Amino acid sequence: MVDDDYDVADGVADPLRDYGHEVFVARDGHGALDRIGEVHPTVAIIDIGLPGLSGHDLAIRARQRQGSEPLRLIALTGLSGAAERRRSKDAGFDVHLVKPVNLDALLEAVSAPPDAHATLAPG
Fold first, then answer.
1. What is the pLDDT of residues 58-69, one digit of tens each?
2. Which of 2, 7, 25, 94 is positioned for an S-S bond with 46, CB 3.0–4.6 A?
3. 6-111 carries CATH number 3.40.50.2300
């Protein structure tokens, strides 16, 4: 989970933990890229508006580094327009979710097979 807003990060991480997922939290793009390299997650939930390294740039770099390891990228943002969804897809995100995120939609996105390339989820 990557978000510079503590309330959002905890609001996403805590329910995922309650459902049995192991969750690591990073607060910025550069820290997240380092953490992804350390723990090799199968899913990364990334805010688009991060300080330093944007969520889009983080997704691109994470895809470049993943090698053969499956990695499902989920964009989590306040932006819901068609152009933003296209930009997320172009950056390598599998799913585009809008804040405040619906828990059922989040759980569905996280639980999909890591190598599945989902269509961009509705708001």
1. 999 999 888 788
2. 2
3. yes
d(CA 63, CA 67): 8
Task: Report the distance separating Cα 1 and Cα 9, nearest Å.
Answer: 7
Residue 57 has which token pair?
């740039």
Listed by start position, the domains of the chain span 6-111
Structural contact between residues 117 and 94, judged by C-beta atoms closer than 8 angstroms: yes
Q: What are phi and psi of 71, to 5 degrees?
A: -145, 115
Span 101-122, pLDDT tens digits: 999 999 999 998 765 444 444 4
pTM for the whole thing? 0.90
